[in-house]
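Sequence, please.
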């Protein structure tokens, strides 16, 4: 495998020649691969454990289809141990419960600092395990993790209640109180980032965590576990279990001592999580699920920008984004030109070794996903969509797929209805604004959408009509830790990120107090009443 370093300052190195940089990154990658075996166990109570069953499972390098290493496979018994540790850490009087909110924020800030310090290491682990280009891991994923944790660190001592004027002589106020033990199940498409999205608000508000990481991509989450211990989080506050969904994930969702579960993944599994939660202890649930997001291009859009942004909307992260712009609706007067330009752009996309910093697209995460995507491509051909480019595997080893574009796609085709989660673009034609709004909303999903136009009135007319949790105007995949993210309909329950994300991890308690001056009056009235009753009772006795 070769590692070609571009002349840009992508890695934030400066003052070094190209040859020196080449050797620096080679040495660092070699060190990473020597050290990766250090964090392959289950993390419970700030200690590393083998699985109770002693089972392990392989994690695969999707670029080569070769085994990287064996990781401990957590199951129900391991979840039991982790939940007990989290429950003990949550008890009144524990170091975590006694800790000031500002100090919780300090620990999150320190965790962000350590992740920033080890950015290159984490980016390499993420690329090795997930297959996404190293340039993306280093310049997108890791910085967003750091920003997310720092954002929620700032919230730790600022999540305030309210005073509420109510009738009568009473003082009424609310408190935001921690929920308790939070089960968190994260996906494989953005393992490091989704871990931060879950940990940030949960820890800022004082909860404890039992997290199951995706079996395809456990390595970065386990490395972060070592940093959690390093920065000083008390034992049991964060527990991380690599394992399978039907065993470890199901055990978390159905556990009677887990007070809340947060899941990011497919809508199908979301249904199972919701069912398990409701049939156990009615634990609170946050779900960030699938999508089939409409990306709407009006005839007055800037063509060059619309083509490039639409390419990014679909192909970013190998198409493995829940909010990918996977239904591209183009107004009929510009349809042919848009298709032609999109095909030209897709053919220029660089697919290959994810450690080559010129690579735009790496492999799909595993063979199951690889075969699933090829199956959807075959479905598109059978249904009559016109294949314009791609449609095949892009290498004779690993899980690479060519950037693929279909035109003349109809709304009832499988590729236009189901979430493909791969580098397959479907371009549909529309005439009027009302038509495209109706068609865009004709989906069980409602995660995200986009509109490209130079007419702001049209942009707002369409965005107001779309049933989606996020709508981007003349851009795509713009995320900030400050802005909430989540879906309508079958795309989820609740919101992550921003102030709204804190709601998912707190209970609201209402407290009402009788004002002191009225308490004195009431007390006197009570004393008089007691004397009166005593007097009457005395008279009855004499009679």
């Amino acid at each position: 495998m070769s590692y070609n370093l571009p002349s840009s300052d992508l890695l934030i190195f400066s003052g070094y020649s190209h040859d020196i940089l080449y050797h620096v990154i080679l040495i660092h990658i070699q060190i990473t691969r020597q050290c990766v075996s250090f964090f392959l166990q289950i993390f419970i109570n700030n200690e590393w454990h083998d699985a109770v069953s002693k089972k392990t499972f392989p994690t695969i390098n999707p670029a080569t289809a070769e085994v990287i290493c064996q990781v401990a496979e957590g199951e129900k018994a391991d979840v039991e141990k982790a939940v007990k540790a989290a429950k003990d850490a949550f008890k009144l009087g524990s170091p975590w419960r006694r800790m000031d909110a500002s100090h919780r924020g300090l620990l999150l800030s320190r965790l962000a600092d350590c992740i920033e310090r080890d950015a290159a290491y984490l980016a390499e682990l993420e690329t090795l395990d997930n297959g996404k280009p190293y340039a993306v891991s280093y310049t997108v994923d890791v910085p967003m993790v750091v920003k997310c944790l720092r954002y929620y660190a700032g919230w730790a001592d600022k999540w305030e209640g309210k005073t509420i004027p109510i009738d009568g002589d009473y003082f009424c106020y609310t408190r935001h109180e921690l929920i308790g033990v939070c089960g968190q199940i994260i996906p494989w498409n953005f393992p490091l980032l989704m871990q931060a999205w879950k940990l940030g608000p949960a820890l800022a508000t004082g909860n404890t965590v039992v997290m199951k990481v995706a079996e395809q991509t456990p390595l970065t989450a386990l490395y972060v576990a070592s940093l959690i211990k390093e920065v000083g989080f008390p034992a049991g506050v964060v527990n991380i279990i690599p394992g399978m969904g039907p065993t470890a994930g199901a055990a978390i969702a159905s556990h009677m001592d887990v007070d809340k579960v947060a899941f990011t993944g497919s809508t199908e599994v979301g249904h199972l999580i919701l069912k398990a939660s409701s049939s156990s202890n009615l634990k609170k649930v946050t779900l960030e699920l699938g999508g089939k997001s409409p990306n709407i291009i009006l005839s007055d859009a800037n063509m060059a920008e619309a083509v490039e942004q639409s390419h990014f909307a679909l192909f970013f992260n190998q198409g493995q984004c829940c909010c990918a712009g996977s239904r591209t609706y183009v107004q009929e007067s510009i349809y042919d030109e848009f298709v032609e330009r999109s095909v030209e752009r897709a053919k220029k996309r660089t697919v290959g070794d994810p450690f080559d910093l010129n690579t735009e697209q790496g492999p799909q995460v595993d063979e199951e996903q690889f075969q699933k995507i090829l199956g959807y491509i075959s479905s598109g051909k059978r249904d009559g969509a016109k294949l314009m480019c791609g449609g095949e595997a892009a290498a004779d080893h690993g899980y690479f797929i060519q950037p693929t574009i279909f035109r003349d796609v109809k709304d009832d085709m499988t590729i236009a209805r189901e979430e493909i989660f791969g580098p397959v673009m479907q371009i549909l034609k529309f005439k009027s604004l009302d038509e495209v709004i109706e068609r865009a909303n004709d989906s069980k999903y409602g995660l995200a959408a986009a509109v490209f136009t130079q007419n702001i009135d049209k942009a707002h007319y369409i965005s107001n009509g779309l049933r989606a949790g996020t709508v981007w105007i003349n851009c795509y995949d713009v995320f900030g830790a400050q802005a909430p993210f989540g879906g309508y309909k079958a795309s989820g329950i609740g919101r992550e990120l921003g102030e709204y994300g804190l709601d998912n991890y707190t209970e609201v308690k209402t407290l009402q107090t009788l004002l002191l001056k009225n308490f004195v009056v009431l007390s006197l009235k009570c004393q008089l009443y007691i004397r009166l009753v005593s007097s009457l009772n005395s008279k009855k006795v004499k009679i």
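The radius of gyration is 27 Å.
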